[in-house]
Design brief:
Elements: H1 3-17, E1 26-28, H2 32-42, H3 48-56, E2 57-60, H4 79-99, E3 112-114, E4 121-126, E5 140-144, H5 159-171, E6 175-178, E7 183-186
Antiparallel strand pairs: 1-2, 3-4, 4-5, 6-7
Helix pairs in contact: 1-3, 1-5, 2-4
């Protein structure tokens, strides 16, 4: 088990201590065969971090009428959704580039893969270094569909750094589940400056 899987398991345990029913809605992880097949469909290798993420749980089961029991406003997506959204976003990027005469701000990297379900915003991991080193970290970017000029700068250097931030916030009580109301609560004012990556952390 890798460091990312260890962090995910520790987070899972911490959330369970707070009576957060996350495990009830997270779907079983993708198999190695499913991950290999996804790489073939994408046309590039996934980093060990991203494989660990989808191997931990492969999506979230949204229950109609029930508020999502996930600590972020962006729900984890499935591997199938990630492959679909990659190809759809790349096609859209090509259309924008053609309309702009070959160069456009609207872009979706050739090795970007979404970790969350699409919505007004989406968190993506960049697998650009995985071909040379599968253990190389995947930088995380936040796509805000209404603000394409902000897509390019990485928000965090790795998936591991995001999980470490979640763990820190959970341990210090800044991010906590309230079983009485059945929802997550956060105190953004208490988040240390170096963790203030709004949009990715919370």
């Amino acid at each position: 088990m890798g460091v990312v899987r260890d962090l995910l398991q520790e987070l899972n345990d911490r959330w369970a201590e707070q009576s957060a029913p996350i495990a009830r809605y997270l779907l079983p992880g993708a198999t190695e065969q499913e991950l290999d097949e996804a790489e073939k469909q994408l046309g590039f290798p996934l980093s060990a971090e991203v494989r660990d993420w989808y191997g931990w749980h492969n999506g979230y089961d949204l229950v109609p009428g029930l508020a999502p029991q996930w600590p972020s406003r962006k729900l984890p997506g499935s591997l199938k959704e990630a492959v679909r959204d990659h190809h759809a976003s790349r096609a859209q990027a090509r259309e924008f580039a053609e309309e702009a005469g070959g160069v456009a701000e609207w872009n979706f990297g050739a090795t970007w893969v979404a970790l969350t379900r699409p919505g007004k915003q989406m968190v993506v991991a960049d697998n650009d270094r995985a071909g040379q080193d599968s253990l190389a970290p995947s930088a995380l970017r936040l796509i805000i569909f209404d603000e394409p000029e902000k897509w390019n700068p990485p928000r965090l250097p790795s998936l591991m750094s995001l999980l470490e931030a979640w763990l820190t916030l959970t341990q210090q009580g800044t991010l906590r589940f309230n079983p009485t109301v059945g929802d997550w609560e956060e105190d953004w004012s208490a988040v240390p400056q170096h963790l203030r990556v709004r949009g990715l952390i919370l």
